[in-house]
Every structure is written in structure tokens, then in C-alpha cells.
Amino acid sequence: MSDVLWKPTTERVENANVTSFRRWVNDKHGLDLQSFTALYDWSVDQAEKFWPALIEYTDLKAETWGERVLIDGNKMPGAQFFPDARLNFAENLLVRDDNTDALVFWGEDKVKTRLSWTDLNIAVSRFSQALRAEGVGKGDRVCGYMPNMGETVIALLATAAIGATWSSASPDFGVQGVVDRFGQIEPTVMITVDGYHYNGKQHDIREKVRDVVDRIDSLKKVVIVKYAFDGTDSTGIRNAVTYDDFIAPFEGAKITFEQVEFNHPLYVMFSSGTTGKPKCIVHGTGGTLLKQVSEHVLHCDVAPGDRVFYFTTCGWMMWNWLMAGLAAGATLLLYDGSPFYPSGNILFDYADAEGMTLFGTSAKYIDALAKAELKPRATHDLSTVRAMTSTGSPLAPESFDYVYRDIKEDIHLASISGGTDILGCFVLASPVLPVKRGVIQTRALGVAVDVFNDDGKAVRNEKGELVCTKPFPSMPVGFWNDPDGSRYHAAYFDRFENIWCHGDYVELDDEGGMVIYGRSDATLNPGGVRIGTAEIYRQVEKLPEIQESIVIGQDWDNDVRVILFVVLRDNYELDAALIDKIKKQIRNNCTPRHVPAKVIAVADIPRTKSGKITELAVRDVVHGRPVKNQEALANPTALELFSNLGELKK
Q1: Which of 66, 117, 336, 490 is most buried per CB count within 10 Å?
Q2: Rounded Cα gap, residues 234 and 207, in angstroms
Q3: Residue 124 pLDDT > 90, yes or no?
Q4: Number of helical H runs and strand E runs in the chain
Q5: pLDDT tens across 347-392, in order?
């Protein structure tokens, strides 16, 4: 197959937001930037011009942006963007007030609702007034233990409107997982539901909510949304009130938007927490807005009237990312539940029914579709879907093939990657560049992404560490309860002085495309040679017998040996012939060092709530080390499958 799988038409390039922006920049600054690459180079070389240009071009609102764009720009951490600005995040998302759709929600096949822009403004007004009446104000915390539904968006926007700080988790989290997160930040109000739908079943969470509330003393009010059950019986839940009763006293008056500093805490996000209590990562108002708007408008080509979807829960940063689609004037398509209930077609049904334009999902979902041999191209229209984005883990080259073969031929497939750490992407899409098989298209505008070798030297076409060499607005404000900044510094800046080191093992080509080989802390080192885990996954998961896999390095005989665990598809068994086939597949397509010393079948693989497999947790179990925070896992009992395996003792 050709490496180039898709090219934008001349018309598409001409009509792209980023093309219009590039020409606007040329006119404004007397430049002659003739390509996306030239625009990227200018955006990182002239950050103090790029970010104000984005603000002006996208008409972002503020009481003032101030005269200064960047101070201490040579310090990471320590640089400050727009230190004199005063703005409000919610004001920049509530950009319309009309009867067109702002939010559409599907809760599997059980619930379908929609909310107009006018109704969204009214709902945010009422909820913000209710929060103020509870005494919630600037700097207080409001949390959501919620599905990805309309009331969650309303609560977030109302929280931001009054200058408070939002944090969320999905309702499948266990009690300890929620307490480990919200308990650290001492929220005043929590919004939650009576239960949720998953895989066709109702899951009651009221008992969990009661236990959570009993363990977080700071909660003064618990707002319960009626969703999965007929009533919102809140017996035993301290300070509980129904959503309807909470907002009942308030009419939909004009919203008062509290103007806050650029770095005023908007979100508290959480690390996965598989190595201890989750780190609380604080993100600022202005940096989040600028970064996410740049990605929606310039990289994903979102425009007013578009209908933007991301398959995500409220426990994954892609939910926060999705929210910024409102700032581009787009309708948000929300979904909660299993993407395979009642069949693997529901998200494609949604795309056709609602005219979806951007279909966002995870690499694991695309791989699961391929393994299920679904062919949406044959069963659905999908004529409105212009782009599909994928993140969460590296998108294998075979998944690129699958999308173009079995989903849609003319689609902008964008593998993207960044993280909770920056509430956005380091590398992502460009609607004006070709899509190459297995390669992420480009680096993020305004973000000086590079690759360093172990000596701290920039390299091309060579594997190394993903770094960022200059400050950018959506770097965290800091970590919660980290007064001297030592934990924040240790997380990103200990490896290379004054350089953000992200912890991804990657390769950057001469054209600015990137391949990600896995997390640096999960790389394998047999014989002292670094191997990215994604290299092995790409080969193993090509095999029809294999549903999924996870690979670790086991300390053995004063070295490291590669151990591969596989989940088999139905009706297959791991016999000597299949083990030989797996090893041959890896040897022929990688190197002899990639070949696992042991291949072991397991029934399940542990993963985080956002669906990422947990190599480090498995490695700890294999070595007899405790996994400190199993509440961070969606399926913690799967860890038992890797404990005390006789095959790993010989």
C-alpha cells in the first residue's frame, strides 16, 4: 500500500480555517508564509505574535487581554502568558443564543435529548445562580460524578461562569477512586446521577454516592440528576437535592460572567493514579481556552454549524477538550454508554442520524471494530463525516488501512496525541496535509515539539524522547497542594533542564510527522536496547487469533526479558504452533530483540478508566510489587491473572 492514504482536495485546502488564518496572518504581519509548515515555524518562533493572532482571528472575548503577552519566556516552569488578562471561559463557549442545537445526547438506545443554544444559556444561568446562592464563588471547587450528558455540560459552564473550578469523574469509578480525586481538592458542591446505562443495563450508583459524600466533609450540597431510574431517591445522602429542585427558584436571567486571571484555575485534572494517589493537575482558564480553540479551529477545521462528537467519559481529558467545540459555534454530540450496545453500529447510527462532521474516538475502539469485522462503509451513509480523530494509544498502521477500507475512503483520519498534562495535543491533525499510513501528521501550532536523544540533542528519523523546548499557554498552572512546585518540576523538568519532557518514546521525520512507540517508562530494555511497546503490539494484533495484548519487561538473570501476554479471540487456544507464529511475526517485522521470551494467554488485561492498558501495573504484579491504587483501574481484578505465574519463575 502507498504510504499516502489520503490527500485533501484543492477546494478543501482553500476552504480550510487554517488556510484562511495563514493568509490573515500574512496580511496582518506583512509575511509570506506559503505553507502549513511555514506557519508552524512562525508560530513557535514568534509565540508572542501567534497567540494574540489566534485571539483576534477567532474573536475570543475578554474584559482585557492586557499589553503583555509573555513574561519570563525563557523559564520552564515559570513563564507566564497574558499576565494582565481578565476573561471568562464560559463566556467564550456560550457564543450563540438561537434555536439551533447546542447539545444532542444519546444514552445508548435508552435516552435521546437535545438542547438549543437558547435553552443552554438559560440552563447555565439558572445553575450558576443556584451555585451562587449556595455561597460558591471564585476559586471554590465544583465536581461532577457524571455521565457525558447535557446536565454535565451545564454544570461545567455554570461553574466556569462564576469563576469556580471544575473537576469530574465518570460514574463507573468506585468510591475510593472518587474520594482519592475529589477528596484532595475539597469541593463545595457535587453534581451526580441516580445511575447510568451501560451495555443495556441500569447501574444504580446512589449507594456509592452516599459513601463518597460521607467521606468528603467539604460537600455542602449534592445535586442529583434523574437519569437511569424513575426517581431520585436520595435517602441517606447528606445534603442531597434533586437537579430540578436546585434550579427551581431561579429564572433564566442574563448570565453574569466573573472575569478571572489568565492562570485562574479552571480545571483540576487527575493523573491515572496507578502508582499512588492521583496527582491533581491544575489548568488555567486562558491557557486551556487558547490551546483547545487552536486545535478545534486550526487543526480540526471546526466551524459554526459543525457537529462534533468524541467518544469519551467525564473521567478522560477528551471530554474537557470536546467542550471547547462550543467556542467554534459547533453542536456537541454527546454519548454515554457502551459503543457496542446493542451492536457495534450505534455510533455510526448516531453519525448518520445527527449529521456528525467530526467523529472522535480511541485507537482501541477502531481496533475493536476491525477485530469484529464491521464494515460501516457498507451499512451507513456517513456522507457528513469529514474527519475522524483517534487518541488514547498509538493508532496502528493496520488501523489506518481499516478506516480507509471499511469506514470511509474520503475522510481525514487524524491520529492525535498529547495528554491530561496539557489539556491538548503535542502532535495532531492538519486538514491541509496528506495522511500517511501509521504517522501522526504534524506538531501543534504554537508548541515547540522536538525529539531528544539520551544526550539531550535534537534528532530526526531517530527514536527518542518527546520534548517541548519553549513554553506554551496550556502548561499546568501547577499541582494541587504543591506549594514549592517540586512535584510539578519533577514530573516534567527533571530529565532535561528548562525543557518539558513528556515521557513518550517517539520518532520525528523531516516533514514534521511523528510515530509514537509507547510510554518511555514502559519501554523495554533487553540487552540494554530500548524497544517501544507499540512496535510489538502492531505486529501481534495483526494476527486474527489475538484479541489484545500487553507486553512488559521482566527482570531476569541480570538483564530484562520480554514477556508477552495475549487475550485470544473465541475458539482459539495458545498452543506451540500459535506461539511460534506470534514469535515469527515479531521477528520478521521487527528484530530478534523484540521477540518475547515467553508468550502467555490471559483472560483479561487491566486498563484505566479511559481505556489505556496499564503496563506498569502488570510489571509491578509480575515482580511482586504492590499496585498502590487499584481504584484507578476499570477492571482491577484482572491484575490477579498476572500474579505468581509459574511460567515466569523459570
Answers
A1: 336
A2: 9
A3: yes
A4: 20, 33
A5: 999 999 999 999 999 988 998 899 899 999 999 999 999 999 999 8
283's grid cell: 489548568
Contacts of 412 (CB under 8 A, 6+ apart): 6, 8, 301, 386, 387, 388, 429, 431, 435
- 3-class SS at 222? strand
pLDDT for res 528: 67
The whole model's pTM is what?
0.89
Residue 64 β-bridge partners = 86
Q: Are 441 and 412 a contacting pair, CB within 8 Å? A: no
Give yes or no for a cis peptide into 77 (omega within 30° of 0). Answer: yes
Write out pLDDT tens, residues 284-306. Answer: 999 999 999 999 999 999 999 99
Average pLDDT, the chain: 93
**Is residue 467 within 8 Å of 451, Cβ to Cβ?**
yes
- DSSP 3-state of 489: helix
User: How far, in whole angstroms, is CA 451 from its chain's centroid?
Assistant: 22
Of 232, 227, 195, 192, the closest CA to residue 212 belongs to 192
- Residue pair 125/119 in contact (Cβ under 8 Å)? The answer is no
| DSSP 3-state of 535 | helix
C-alpha cell at position 369: 471494530
281: β partners: 269, 479
Neighbours of 12 (CB within 10 A): 16
For 272-323, the DSSP string reads --TTSSPPEEEEEHHHHHHHHHHIIIIIS---TT-EEEE---TTSHHHHHHH
Task: Name the nearest CA neighbour of 304 among 98, 152, 473.
Answer: 98
Span 581-609, mean pLDDT? 89
Q: CA 38 to CA 43: how far, in whole Å?
A: 9
Type and span of the H or E element at 554: strand 546-556
Q: Are 158 and 124 in contact (CB under 8 A)?
A: yes
Give the model confidence (pLDDT) of 35-92 as tens digits: 999 999 999 999 999 999 999 999 999 999 999 999 999 999 999 999 999 999 999 9
pLDDT at 218: 97
In the chain, the amino acid numbered 575 is D
SS3 372: coil
Angle ∠(423,426,430) on CA atoms, nearest 5: 110
86 beta partners: 64, 261
Report d(CA 550, CA 648) in Å as an integer: 15
Whether pLDDT at 15 is above 50: yes
Residue 36 near residue 431 (C-beta atoms within 8 A): no
Q: Is the pLDDT of residue 560 over 90?
A: no
